[in-house]
Amino acid sequence: MFAEYLGPLATVIGIDIDENCKAHESDLTHVRIGDQGDPQFLESVLNEFGPPDLILDDGSHEMHHVRASFDYLYPKLSKSGIYMVEDMHTAYWQEYGGGYLHQDSFIEYSKGLIDQLNFQHTREDTPSPQWIRDTSSISFYDSMVIFEKGSITPKMKSKKGST
Length: 163
Prior knowledge:
This protein is 26% helix and 19% strand. It is α/β, with parallel strands linked by helices.
């Protein structure tokens, strides 16, 4: 489906723990079997295919897996890449390591990143992390969180009383 939607110039890489998913390989679709929370496995995929332009996390939906793959892969995304995490309703389910306002849910983690994204507007002298300086937006939709890369020029921090 993704190869058809993205066109013949796209390379689609699927990651799954189920060996049966290899049956979905084609000329444009590659399947690698491994754990989305394993940085060594993820690095092997990146070494084989290079930095991705688009990541759609439709993995285990376990909060620790979502966070581990995001923390590892997002910095390696291309400079104008998009990282999408879907089925985020599971962030509210205890059996997936979440719950309403649960500190370990990916939704709560992402909410905290909003402050980092907007850090440039504070009057603090502490620099923001590099990964957030390379991020142009974080969007929340029903059951989805989407991060878009793109450099943003830091704005001047005005002193109190000046514009």
